[in-house]
Amino acid sequence: MPVPREAVVWAYRFFLGRDPESENAIIGKMKLEDEVRLMQEFTNSREFKAKRRDLVVFGNFEADRKEKLSAPAGMKTIRIREMPASSLRNGAERISGTITFPLADEEKLKDVIFSFHGPKEAESLTGVEIVLKSVPALYLAISDSEQKVTVGEKCSGRWIFHLWGPAIVQIGDRVTSNGTDCFINPGGSMLVGDDCMFANAFVHVGDNHAIIDAVSGAPLNYSPNARIEFKKHVWVASRATILADTTIGAGCVIGAGSIVKGNFDDKSLIVGVPAKVVRTGVSWTRSYEGRGAEDVLEMLNT
């Protein structure tokens, strides 16, 4: 198809600089395309994704901005949305809450993961408070308002917390875990005393699902304020499962694979499915040869 003479004339005039109107229009279009490209590159950049939670106001965030945060000496408090971008999953940046941690451990925040789950809107959640006097590796699945987690000093290891409603978790000082998985029902509380040691155990503060009477339909296992408490210096061995409404006395040992429910006295060896006390008047040390036994006995007797 022959090129129209008008197009040849326009091209000739344009490239000779004799058609400034067309030239300016094309240059303007090129600049606009460049600006759009640069904007796309910026919005896809790591820097933008890290800052975007400070650029958008969701739900209660405007009130959050006006509230001045404070922390004890040597500690720092930030809002959850100010966590590293890699620590916020599934919309967790929209949760209105705070995390407090030691200034010296700020680089460890990368090991703390927040994930939002549940039927509620993330921006409707308020009163979520995480206080870490030390910073172990944590995975916090947040689903509701008024969820409180406190971790004491010199704690280490890995924890996974599934918080299904308003709940309280309190971990004492010098507590270790090799990957304990904790499920906490609405209204539940999990209390761990000082110097406890967990392997890869399971803690169920509530059953998560109802068992019902086949005639009346009434729930048989509902506990609105379920509670599990580990007194000081408790050892929970591999794959042990602790069920709701249980208290483990100071110095106890829970055997591997045991399923535990009920109240147990201090210095008991608890083993089996279902678990029972197989020996009393015992405790444990972190060293395999029993080093540190005197310190353990002194701690348990004070």
TrEMBL record:
UniProt xrefs under SUPFAM superfamilies: Trimeric LpxA-like enzymes
GO molecular function, one term: transferase activity
UniProt entry tagged with the keyword Transferase: yes
Record Pfam families: Hexapep
Keyword annotations: Transferase
Keyword Transferase set for record: yes
Protein name, entry field: Transferase
Organism of derivation: Pandoraea captiosa
